């Protein structure tokens, strides 16, 4: 319980100004410590059974993905770098194994409804704090230390280390918050509505256009997964929230820095992404099976020093510009682990959405992983609420990854939520027959 809470709630806020990398290195160290502590605790209490709690659909796909990354690391052009990860990123094989272990620890821990409700409640409370920090940054007040690079930033980033990372954090949680808001009673509905509006305002303050589009995708998936009847039943509070968010949008955009507002209409970042995709894509054909190895793009990127590169990145004429991410997660996986790793990656995402979809319909049949009766106490443990909310969050997170990349400041929260959906999973239709999911403990 403590390990899961640390990874999902505490880790995004950790900043250590005395370290050379104040934002990411402390977080990855805390991730390793939390996963090790959680795994050892579960090993003492139930042996190795916790490794199976992710279940066949998600667990098998994740195992295949991690296996492909392991082979890609062994065959990497720089195996040591692929194992520990690039500086300021730290998403080598060691971190991916920690993510997988965190999902398994979370799946085992969150099968208990009280723990699930407590963790989700803490995550949503933390989202409120993160929103407040971001909005203070938006008006020029930074309550957290900023290094030399971030001191000049005019876009909100909270404590995640980047506006794009804060955008990923927001879109991952907003569909879940909207779902809980729609299903809550009036007293709590006001609180959840305020939280949704605050986190939405923080998302607008990031100026992360990829996050804005991803949120639309996530809310659409939430609506489809919830079903027409559920959306119609909550139509009135949803309209109220939509009106509030419509008012919040110009209020945030018009109160920030003029330079930050100008970023919304800036086509330069889009052009640079297209250039990186075009110049990095040939790397897949060069090593198509297992790729170049995780976190090696900064060393193998082929367009450094070319006239086209300097035209797209004029600052490269005066300083070394590092391209360590292609800003597209599908391309990132293909470069890092080849087509084998990409296939496993897509299989994992399919199984994740499949499980969330089945979970959303579990309450009607009583086929979910919690004890009967526990789903009626709070929307935070109701599969008919959590399933669509997490499905929408996963869809939004996946969508923004295709214009951004994974951050160690946000990814642990995603993997905890993967464990949560695995803990809630219903009797999954597999091979045409029903197979039982876990029971609550």
- Average pLDDT taken over every residue: 89
Sheet having the most strands: 2 strands, antiparallel
Taken as a percent bin, the fraction of beta residues is under 5%
Radius of gyration, in Å, reads 21 Å
Estimate the helix proportion, in percent.
Answer: 55-70%
Low-confidence stretches: 364-376, 427-441
Query: Strand-and-helix sequence, N→C?
Result: HHHHHHHHHHHHHHHHHHHHHEE
How many domains, in number, for the residues? Answer: 1
SSE-based structural type: mainly alpha
| Strand order of the biggest β-sheet | 1-2
> Per the principal axes of the C-alpha atoms, what is the gross shape?
globular
Number of helices: 21
Total count of strands? 2
Q: End-to-end span in angstroms?
A: 14 Å
What topology emerges from the helices and strands here?
Elements (H helix, E strand, L loop, with lengths): L1 H9 L14 H22 L9 H19 L4 H6 L8 H17 L3 H26 L9 H4 L11 H21 L2 H20 L3 H18 L1 H6 L1 H19 L4 H7 L3 H13 L1 H5 L10 H4 L6 H6 L16 H32 L1 H4 L17 H19 L9 H14 L3 E3 L2 E3 L6
Antiparallel strand pairs: 1-2
Helix pairs in contact: 1-2, 1-6, 1-21, 2-5, 3-5, 3-18, 5-21, 6-9, 8-9, 8-10, 8-20, 9-12, 10-20, 18-20, 18-21, 20-21
Please, could you describe this protein's structure?
With 441 residues, the chain is mostly helical. The chain has one domain. 66% of the residues lie in helices and 1% in strands. The protein is built from 21 helices and two strands. The chain has helices at 2-10, 25-46, 56-74, 79-84, 93-109, 113-138, 148-151, 163-183, 186-205, 209-226, 228-233, 235-253, 258-264, 268-280, 282-286, 297-300, 307-312, 329-360, 362-365, 383-401, 411-424, and strands at 428-430, 433-435. Strands 1-2 form a two-stranded antiparallel sheet. Helix 2 (25-46) crosses helix 5. The longest helix is centred in the last third of the chain and has 32 residues, at 329-360. The protein is globular and about 60 Å long. Mean pLDDT is 89; it is low at 364-376 and 427-441.
């Amino acid at each position: 319980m403590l390990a899961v809470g640390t990874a999902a709630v505490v880790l995004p806020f950790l900043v250590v100004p005395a370290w050379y990398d104040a934002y990411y290195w402390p977080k990855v160290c805390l991730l390793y410590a939390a996963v090790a502590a959680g795994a050892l605790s579960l090993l003492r209490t139930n042996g190795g059974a916790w490794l199976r709690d992710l279940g066949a659909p998600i667990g098998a796909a994740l195992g295949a993905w991690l296996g492909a990354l392991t082979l890609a690391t062994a065959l990497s052009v720089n195996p040591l770098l692929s194992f520990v990860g690039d500086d300021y990123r730290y998403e080598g094989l060691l971190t991916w194994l920690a993510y997988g272990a965190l999902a398994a620890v979370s799946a085992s821990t969150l099968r208990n409804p009280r723990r699930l409700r407590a963790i989700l409640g803490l995550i949503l409370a933390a989202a409120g704090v993160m929103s407040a920090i971001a909005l203070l940054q938006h008006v020029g007040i930074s309550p957290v230390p900023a290094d030399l690079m971030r001191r000049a930033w005019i876009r909100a980033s909270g404590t995640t280390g980047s506006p794009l990372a804060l955008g990923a954090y927001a879109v991952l949680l907003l569909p879940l918050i909207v779902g809980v808001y729609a299903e809550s009673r009036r007293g709590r509905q006001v609180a959840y509505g305020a939280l949704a509006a605050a986190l939405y305002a923080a998302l607008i303050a990031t100026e992360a256009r990829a996050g804005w589009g991803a949120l639309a995708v996530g809310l659409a998936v939430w609506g489809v997964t919830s079903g027409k009847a559920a959306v119609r039943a909550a139509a009135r509070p949803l309209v109220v929230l939509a009106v509030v968010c419509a008012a919040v949008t110009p209020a945030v955009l018009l109160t920030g820095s003029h330079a930050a507002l100008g970023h919304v209409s800036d086509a330069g970042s889009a052009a640079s992404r297209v250039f990186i995709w075009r110049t990095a894509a040939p790397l897949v054909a060069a090593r198509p099976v297992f790729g170049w190895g995780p976190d090696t793009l900064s060393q193998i990127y082929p367009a450094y020093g070319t006239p086209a590169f300097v035209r797209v990145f004029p600052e490269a004429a005066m300083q070394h510009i590092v391209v360590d991410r292609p800003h597209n997660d599908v391309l990132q996986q293909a470069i890092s682990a080849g087509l084998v790793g990409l296939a496993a990656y897509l299989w994992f995402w399919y199984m994740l959405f499949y499980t969330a979809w089945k979970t959303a319909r579990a309450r009607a049949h009583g086929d979910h992983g919690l004890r009967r009766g526990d789903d009626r106490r709070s929307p935070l443990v109701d599969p008919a609420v959590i399933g669509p909310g997490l499905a929408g969050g996963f869809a939004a997170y996946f969508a923004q990854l295709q214009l951004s990349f994974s951050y160690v400041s946000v990814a642990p929260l995603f993997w905890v939520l993967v464990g949560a959906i695995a803990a809630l999973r219903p009797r999954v239709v597999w091979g045409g027959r029903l197979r039982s999911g876990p029971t609550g403990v």
